[in-house]
Write a structure and sequence with these properties.
Blueprint lengths: L5 H5 L2 E8 L7 E7 L6 H9 L7 E6 L6 H11 L6 E7 L5 H10 L5 E4 L5 E2 L3 H12 L3 E10 L3 E2 L20 E4 H6 L13 H11 L4 E13 L4 H6 L3 H11 L1 H4 L4 H15 L11
Parallel strand pairs: 2-3, 2-5, 3-4, 7-10
Antiparallel strand pairs: 1-4, 5-9, 6-10, 7-8, 7-9
């Protein structure tokens, strides 16, 4: 597996806003990929202002949005610039998709811990501090919490303790996770799956499992996932779920078929009966 080459993605866009508070060193950077979410991005950014972690940075990656979400983000960050160690907005020259937007955020940040917050989601005030403490205490590669779903549906997510074997059935871990930079780079960053229909976080957790990297589960409702009809998972991932599942199985045979060909039929049956019915409840973003 090739490590992520940062110079490959840094040229995809340019910085259109950059603010630094000198003398403040942050351990955490929050990466916010943004594509046509002008109506929700400020909620997510406001939830960052309310975090009880004193110092952290925020990197918004405007993936060539057709709306004015990027301008909204710039104006907001300029007003609240004193809250962040670094506040930066990067604009892609053309739309690159969610995976590459996240990779751009990785390339344009330097903090040792990275949190992925999509522009339609929110964090509760203790989210970053609790997840960072979990990583400090556990030495795991990433930390994630239980989700609270809001919007079209109010419910509790399906996250649970890290068990790599369960990835053969369904993705139970959302993209909203605090990840060690060195672990993320070792895994090669976020991959673009065929046709870019999503599930790139599912693919990342599979690669973490293959590398022997562990996750730590924080069983608290500190991350909020917006359920809405225009989300990426509902408009693109679910309609293409069979093709996406097939690609994931081809990319990660040691996860999906750990005992070789003899386990393929059994795994396929379990995925059909247990996973398909929960495809829209896997905690996937957008």
């Amino acid at each position: 597996m090739q490590p992520m080459r940062l110079y490959d993605v840094a040229s995809l866009g340019e910085i259109v806003y950059d603010s630094h508070n000198d003398g403040i060193a942050a351990e955490v950077a929050v990466i916010v990929p943004l594509y046509n979410y002008a109506d929700t991005v400020l909620e997510g950014l406001e939830s960052l202002v309310r975090q009880d972690l004193p110092e952290f940075s925020v990197i918004v990656v405007d993936d060539a949005s057709a709306d004015d979400g990027g301008e909204h983000a710039i104006r907001f960050l300029e007003r609240r610039r004193a809250r962040f160690a670094t506040a930066r907005v990067l604009r892609h020259h053309r739309n690159q998709g969610l995976s590459m937007a996240r990779n751009s955020g990785i390339a344009w940040s330097s903090e040792p811990y990275l949190f992925m917050l999509d522009a339609d989601n929110r964090l509760r005030p203790p989210a970053l501090s609790r997840l960072l403490e979990a990583l400090h205490c556990s030495g795991a590669g990433f930390a994630y919490s239980q989700l609270f779903w809001f919007g079209d549906e109010d419910a509790i997510g399906i996250a649970d303790v890290w068990e790599p074997e369960r990835l053969a059935i369904n993705n139970y871990i959302d993209a909203m996770a605090l990840i060690r930079r060195d672990a993320l780079l070792a895994a090669g960053g976020y991959a673009v799956l065929a046709d870019d229909h999503g599930l790139e976080d599912y693919d990342l957790w599979c690669r973490f499992a293959e590398l022997g990297l562990e996750g730590v589960f924080v069983p608290e409702l500190i991350c909020e996932y917006r359920v809405h009809a225009a989300s990426m998972v509902r408009t693109r991932s679910i309609p293409n779920i069979l093709a996406l599942n097939a690609e994931l199985a081809l990319r990660h045979p040691s996860i999906f078929y750990p005992h070789g060909a003899e386990s393929a039929a059994a795994t396929g049956t379990r995925r059909a009966t247990e996973g398909a019915g929960r495809s829209d409840r896997s905690g996937q973003r957008q």
